[in-house]
Design brief:
Elements (H helix, E strand, L loop, with lengths): L24 E7 L3 H12 L4 E5 L6 H6 L1 H18 L16 H25 L3 E4 L1 E4 L8 E6 L5 E11 L3 E3 L11 E2 L1 H4 L8 E5 L3 H12 L3 E5 L11 H13 L3 E3 L3 E7 L4 E6 L5 E6 L1 E4 L3 E3 L13 E2 L2 E2 L12 E3 L11 H16 L13 E3 L4 E6 L2 H6 L4 E7 L4 H5 L6 E7 L5 E8 L2 H13 L4 H5 L10 H10 L7
Parallel strand pairs: 1-2, 1-6, 2-3, 6-19, 8-15, 9-10, 9-15, 10-11
Antiparallel strand pairs: 4-5, 5-6, 7-16, 12-13, 13-14, 17-18, 20-21, 21-24, 22-23, 23-24
Helix pairs in contact: 1-8, 3-4, 3-6
Bound molecules: flavin-adenine dinucleotide (FAD).
Flavin-adenine dinucleotide binds next to helix 1, strand 2, helix 2, helix 3 and strand 4.
Length: about 500
Amino acid sequence: MRCLPRQDKRPGMEFPLAETIPTTIYDIAIIGGGPAGYTAAIRGAEYGLKVALIDNAPRLGGTCLHVGCIPTKALLFNAEIWDHLKHAAEFGIASIGTPTLDWAAVLKRKDSIITKHVKGLEFLMKKHKIAVISGNGKLTGPANAGVHTVEVTAAGGEASQIKAKNVILASGSSAKMLPGLQPDSTVLTNIEILSIDQVPKSLIVIGAGAVGVEFSSIFRSFGTEVTILEFLPRVVPVEDEEISKELTRLFKKRGIDVNTGAKVEKVEKTATGVKVSYTDANGKPQVKEAEKVLIAVGRAGRTENIGIEKTKVELERGLIKVNEAQETAEPGIFAIGDIVSGLPQLAHVGSMSGMVAVAKIAGRPFRPLRRDRIPSCTYTEPQIGSVGLTETQAKEKGYEVKVGKFPFAGNAKATIVGNHDGFVKIVSDAKYGEILGVHIIGPQATEIVAEAVAVLELEGTVDELMFTIHAHPTLAESMLDAFGAVQGMAINA
Ligand SMILES: Cc1cc2nc3c(=O)[nH]c(=O)nc-3n(C[C@H](O)[C@H](O)[C@H](O)COP(=O)(O)OP(=O)(O)OC[C@H]3O[C@@H](n4cnc5c(N)ncnc54)[C@H](O)[C@@H]3O)c2cc1C
């Protein structure tokens, strides 16, 4: 039986009896309409394939669009404007009085950005004639005569089946919780915190990965007393050590209480909020109270209830094992995005893994994802943008490493925008001068890093980059100075 695509279900439309409809065999059925799934769907259609996209949320877009990348970056932009307003007089903008924050309007703007992009996605699905199907998708087992069957259960409980030659699993991830805790209006995950009705006076953030530090940055800008409790010895632990150190220094300067090596023992609700007991880095028991607590201790892949137990699909620490073409161990079944093992859980990784899987299905050329070519961006104040090997990783891989570092303090555009904090650090191979990693913390780091990604992708060397013209005055010029710094020849430091 053919399942009716979501865009066809308009009131008043007449459908023929299900029995009279010949079964559609799609080239690809995709389970999950987040950035991994919808990108794969569009690329599939661009290759001329017949694609069905199954999603169980009320609207397409997944974590990224609804409770991840987009809403957090919207709030961070509000925070940035708010921070500028605090220093308006420095920029010669006088007599603006005391600005007040209309939190409801902040949330409304965030929601309108989401809605705009949901509509954009819906338009793209129609444009590419992708069958969007509402419901929970589940594999029924291996393919039968080369055709897979996905069972789809709609929100109302009605079940139907989709037939496809290939299935792409793109069900994404959810926030991990600490044992015994349930999210509510005090104990928050990325979902609840994005719609709290007012800015909390105090917030404890457990976990200092990208999600934890971004929310810390947002709420600190809005005046919240923020305490970070991180189990590992440093914040943003996947970044170069010097980046973690600089973020800690600058967060502390902003009044954020950063505690690393802190082992959370207990989270209890109180009459006024929450009490967190933890053991500090010196092994001493500590207690901290706040109005709210954000649990940001990582993301679990949604691998349950998608039917993989009936297939040869293999798991690795709760995530799906794939080869370089995103194929699982079950023929015709691919996995992309946050449910995949061995790749960072980022939207751009999800979308590119989708494009790789679909190219493989379409028999088109593709380039497998390389972990050391994936940019990592953290949109805190200060921002972080990095790609490639950290200094430690490069040494561990046996490179003789040569490092160049240039502080934004020497960059004219940084002076103009009033933000001198941070630096650009280049990790290069001493023998051939190949750039192995670029680590930026400071103004617009998440934009400047795009150059670094291209440099690594094209295997650029220090000598080449030292003679690459960068426009003046730009923040990107700090890259030129950092490449020069590798040879001890930065101009502006
Ligand atoms: C607070 C926060 C901020 C973030 N910021 C960034 C950022 O700035 N940049 C960045 O690159 N990444 C960011 N991320 C990570 C990013 O959101 C994820 O990497 C990305 O959303 C993963 O995409 P995905 O398509 O794999 O999964 P998801 O976006 O999680 O989408 C999966 C979709 O599948 C649906 N689904 C699940 N199971 C089924 C099923 N059985 N049947 C049908 N549908 C199903 C879900 O409802 C969902 O719509 C952030 C994450 C968080 C939490």
